[in-house]
Amino acid sequence: MRMKDEIKQRALISATIATVNESGLASSSVSKIAKKAGLSPATLYIYYKDKEDLLASIYMDVKIEMSNYIINEITEESSLKKIFSQLWKAMFKYISCHREEFMFIEQFSSSPCCDIVNKKEMEKHFEPITGLIKDGIKKGEIKNVDMGLIKLFLFSPLMVLAKDMIKQGGEFKEKLIKEAFELSWDSIKL
Amino acid sequence: MRMKDEIKQRALISATIATVNESGLASSSVSKIAKKAGLSPATLYIYYKDKEDLLASIYMDVKIEMSNYIINEITEESSLKKIFSQLWKAMFKYISCHREEFMFIEQFSSSPCCDIVNKKEMEKHFEPITGLIKDGIKKGEIKNVDMGLIKLFLFSPLMVLAKDMIKQGGEFKEKLIKEAFELSWDSIKL
Amino acid sequence: MRMKDEIKQRALISATIATVNESGLASSSVSKIAKKAGLSPATLYIYYKDKEDLLASIYMDVKIEMSNYIINEITEESSLKKIFSQLWKAMFKYISCHREEFMFIEQFSSSPCCDIVNKKEMEKHFEPITGLIKDGIKKGEIKNVDMGLIKLFLFSPLMVLAKDMIKQGGEFKEKLIKEAFELSWDSIKL
Amino acid sequence: MRMKDEIKQRALISATIATVNESGLASSSVSKIAKKAGLSPATLYIYYKDKEDLLASIYMDVKIEMSNYIINEITEESSLKKIFSQLWKAMFKYISCHREEFMFIEQFSSSPCCDIVNKKEMEKHFEPITGLIKDGIKKGEIKNVDMGLIKLFLFSPLMVLAKDMIKQGGEFKEKLIKEAFELSWDSIKL
DNA sequence: GATGAATGAGTGTTCATTCAT
DNA sequence: CATGAATGAACACTCATTCAT
Fold this sequence. Notes:
4 copies of one chain form a homotetramer. In chain A, about 75% of the residues lie in helices and about 0% in strands. Chain A has 2 domains: about 45 residues, Homeodomain-like (Arc Repressor Mutant, subunit A, Orthogonal Bundle), CATH 1.10.10; about 130 residues, Tetracycline Repressor, domain 2 (Orthogonal Bundle), CATH 1.10.357.10. The longest helix of chain A has 23 residues. Chain A is mainly α. Chain A starts with 5 loop residues before the first helix and ends with a helix. Chain A contains 10 helices and no strands. The radius of gyration of chain A is 19 Å and the shape is elongated. Chains C and D meet through helix 9 and helix 10 of C and helix 9 and helix 10 of D.
């Protein structure tokens, strides 16, 4: 008996991400993905229940990998502003090294089939950041408003900015990112 | 292909928007749309070159309608903050009255086929707002940073917030919107 | 606009019957049927909702045609035995001229997907025969047992016999049929 | 391929019968059957050449088991009618205790792949009954017609009746069976 | 101008079978 | 002997688009 092949699964994951980047989610057919991975479409169904499962699983994988990466990058603890600054930097660093993964999760998360992923499960991996924000509010460094609002101004401009940069050629202008972070910080700081 | 029968074209537009809202962009087939509009699929091709043209044209139509609506709502001219506050209010007013149109443009703009729309043409309709920002920078009321950055913090949290509110039942909490605007303003003000 | 084509529908019906006869129900794929009919598989879906609908509709068509044929063949009214004898003869006459249709309904009716056909609707077309049996019981010519039992001994040996004859080369031996009818009549007569 | 592991083979047989009963012949895939038997699909191919062989072999097994059962039940030898009456009773007794096996052979025997079973081999196991009929004809108790005809009126109504009873809930009404036998006997007796 | 019929190309998925272990 | 992984071929069905009327 041949063993379920780590290499094949990896091929499947990167083929899925690449296909979605090239053709868009809607045009990413199972057969396109399988062909790019060098597998038969039937093989895909050994590793994933169906197409939805394939996409959602990879989405979860990438998101978790990303959140782990970012959290590990945060070393400074002197001030909240510095921590969030590191967080922004880490994010752009990750994105610039994983453009395809990032574009994949952006496409997937704005598609309706995203609704099936376990949001609760997802949330767990962002708890450290949620904790930082709570602390900041308690210490009076951050505005005492709805937690979601803080996250909104911390992340949504970041994501849109990163997406735009990738779409427009892919250069990540550090100066612009720094400026953007200042705006973000000004929006949430007390 | 245009200017055939105003009524049929309108039916087509609202059928498209409704179908995309119900089934998602990926599952919105030409025949579904035509059926909902009470037309034959073939008739659709009299009014639009192909499916892409249909979606992109409606996207442009809705975006322009939205920008016109917003610009007309701005009456106050005393201070820039008040103007932008009105702009936010107008935006949420429009969105709450045109949920389907809004969700349509959100879905379309995060799909890859959005790339074909004429961005230059689009930009023209947002010139009044661009003008306001330029003025604000000149007068020293707004940070002297890249124009795109100002727009980013003015609009991207707004759009994400509106989308979330619609997804979570549809209630538009005015207090939250006001708070959100304060964060937005704090991010761009000097 | 091209009109829905009587000829194409007929082609579809006879292609379905022929394919089921050649390959068996289970191996009769939509594409095989369409190819034999000289049509694209997609065209089939203009005429029938899906594969089940195709098979069930044709089953109903053939059954109704068969029952009409048989009922029209009954002219004699002198004695019940003669009527039933005519019925047997008519049946074998129909079957020998419509071997493929007969084998098709035999295969379909012993398959599980037969369950979806409207049995009530079907029953209506056999009411004349049901009436004859009821009369026979009243007049004391036929045993006063469950109606289903009479039908069972009138029809099930007939069908099995016809099927066997077709399977074994296709010759319809009249003498054997006459003998068989005598057995059938002996089983139900008082 | 045979004589490997008695237990596994038995598991395979009952899994096949159960699957065919649950899903129908057409939807009974090799992997479904293997899973129900607690085996790998590959293992199945150690015991049987292919799917057809699996089904045909089991069909033969069940038919032989059934004929053995029935023949062993016949004890009485006073009159041919009593013998055949016992035969009917034995048949219904077997069927009511082995509904799944019976439905399996019914489904299989009306499918075209049934044609591959060795009819000669099959016939052997029914020789005792053939003998009884021949005797009856000689003694003048049974009509002197084609042997197949006698079998037809002895068995085909019986099988159809049993199938209907199982389909309609599964109750075996003894009175109806007795009546049916009387009709069967009347059809063949001299 | 308007249409339903028509279709080649494609969809996601399952199949019976074989292979490497 | 036994197996889970692997697959080419097939499955039922839908698609965007065109054509004849």
